[in-house]
């Protein structure tokens, strides 16, 4: 459920998974206007739907209609996955767990120094999840520094985690001491693939993990810079995949067919 529902890759990913497991399930887009959100959640519950993904602009507003919210999602204050369980509506944030899993494919978050660019919904999900997972320090830099400050203060209030924050002028100094860089901004997203990246190769060091949440194109301008610097690029497709994999497990209780879901995503992205 979202509004407006643009071109989403989730139906392709989940329907490929259902087909491969021979499950008689289907994932369909529901464009739901904000004023209809309550009715939509009640209707889905009444209809016996197993679950939904929730996206912009409902990720926060839907909390009001949830009976049970998963711990990290409650701290973040936003969910992207609902599970209808015998009339109980349970909310999860698999963006957060997806971000963590994408990073843990190549590194260990515990004890790491993390730099996050952007302070919107995705930054918020990643920041809370990585703080909970034991990142040693987190710096949040944003175009609008005030929003970075609000996020840092919220983390201090809810987790007792003191994150640093500021504007993009602090990028140069902050990248040097980072183990993990996460760009949550839309810079470099199709069709603006030739945007100037927020961080160039000259600021990166060997072994720095560079996670760009943009997945179209798969090899963004930031990830190309990471390759030039012998840093470790992590495509946004990894987080997209893992947020879906986790949602699939929540809805079905089954082991998601990871390869099938990944192939489905890559097929569409390579075609576009
Ligand atoms: P999401 O849900 O994907 O996190 P969002 O909440 O709209 O999306 O957040 C986008 C983030 O990218 C914001 O931090 C935004 O900065 P502002 O808070 O100043 O708006 C940042 N952003 C958007 N466009 C950007 C650009 N062209 N350059 C740098 N940062 C940008």
From TrEMBL:
Q: Which keywords does UniProt give here?
A: Amino-acid biosynthesis, Aromatic amino acid biosynthesis, NADP, Oxidoreductase
Record domain SDH C-terminal: where:
236-266
Please give the InterPro entries that the UniProt record associates with this protein. Aminoacid_DH-like_N_sf, NAD(P)-bd_dom_sf, SDH_C, Shikimate_DH, Shikimate_DH-bd_N, Shikimate_DH_fam, Shikm_DH/Glu-tRNA_Rdtase
- EC number of this enzyme: 1.1.1.25
| Active site, renumbered | 59
- Reaction catalyzed: shikimate + NADP(+) = 3-dehydroshikimate + NADPH + H(+)
Keyword Amino-acid biosynthesis listed = yes
| Gene Ontology terms, MF aspect | NADP binding; shikimate 3-dehydrogenase (NADP+) activity
- What pathway does the UniProt record associate with this protein? Metabolic intermediate biosynthesis; chorismate biosynthesis; chorismate from D-erythrose 4-phosphate and phosphoenolpyruvate: step 4/7
Shikimate dehydrogenase substrate binding N-terminal domain span: 1-82
Q: Where does the chain bind NADP(+)?
A: 118-122, 142-147, 213, 236
From which residue to which does any coiled coil extend? none
Where shikimate binds, per the record, is at 8-10, 55, 80, 95, 215, 243
Q: Which Pfam families match?
A: SDH_C, Shikimate_DH, Shikimate_dh_N
Q: Which domain of life is it from?
A: Archaea
Q: Where is the Quinate/shikimate 5-dehydrogenase/glutamyl-tRNA reductase domain?
A: 104-185
Any GO BP annotation: amino acid biosynthetic process
Question: Subunit composition?
Answer: Homodimer.
**NCBIfam families, per this entry?**
aroE (TIGR00507), PRK00258.2-2 (NF001314), PRK00258.3-3 (NF001319)
User: What is this protein's function?
Assistant: Involved in the biosynthesis of the chorismate, which leads to the biosynthesis of aromatic amino acids. Catalyzes the reversible NADPH linked reduction of 3-dehydroshikimate (DHSA) to yield shikimate (SA).
Q: Which family does it belong to?
A: Belongs to the shikimate dehydrogenase family.
Q: What name does this protein carry? A: Shikimate dehydrogenase (NADP(+))
**What gene is this protein a product of?**
aroE
């Amino acid at each position: 459920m979202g509004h407006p529902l643009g071109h989403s890759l989730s139906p392709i990913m989940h329907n490929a998974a259902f087909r491969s497991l021979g499950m008689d399930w289907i994932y369909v887009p529901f464009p739901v206007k904000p004023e209809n959100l309550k009715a939509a959640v009640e209707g889905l519950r009444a209809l016996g739907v197993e679950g939904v993904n929730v996206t912009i602009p409902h990720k926060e507003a839907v909390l009001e209609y949830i009976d049970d919210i998963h711990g990290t999602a409650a701290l973040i204050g936003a969910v992207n996955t609902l599970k209808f369980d015998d009339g109980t509506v349970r909310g999860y944030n698999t963006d957060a767990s997806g971000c963590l899993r994408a990073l843990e494919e190549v590194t260990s978050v515990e004890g790491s120094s993390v730099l996050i660019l952007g302070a919107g919904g995705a930054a918020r999900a990643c920041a809370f999840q990585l703080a909970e997972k034991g990142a040693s320090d987190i710096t949040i830099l944003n175009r609008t520094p005030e929003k970075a400050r609000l996020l840092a203060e919220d983390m201090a209030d809810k987790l007792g985690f003191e994150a640093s924050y500021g504007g993009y002028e602090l990028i140069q100094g902050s990248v040097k001491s980072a183990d993990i860089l996460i760009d949550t901004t839309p810079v470099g997203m199709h069709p603006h693939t030739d945007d100037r990246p927020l961080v160039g190769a000259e600021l990166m060091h060997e072994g720095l993990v560079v996670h760009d949440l943009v997945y179209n194109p798969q090899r963004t301008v930031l990830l190309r810079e990471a390759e030039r610097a012998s840093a470790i690029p992590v495509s946004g497709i990894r987080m997209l995949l893992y947020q879906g994999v986790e949602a699939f497990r929540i809805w079905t209780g089954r082991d998601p067919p990871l390869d099938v879901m990944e192939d489905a995503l890559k097929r569409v992205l390579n075609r576009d």
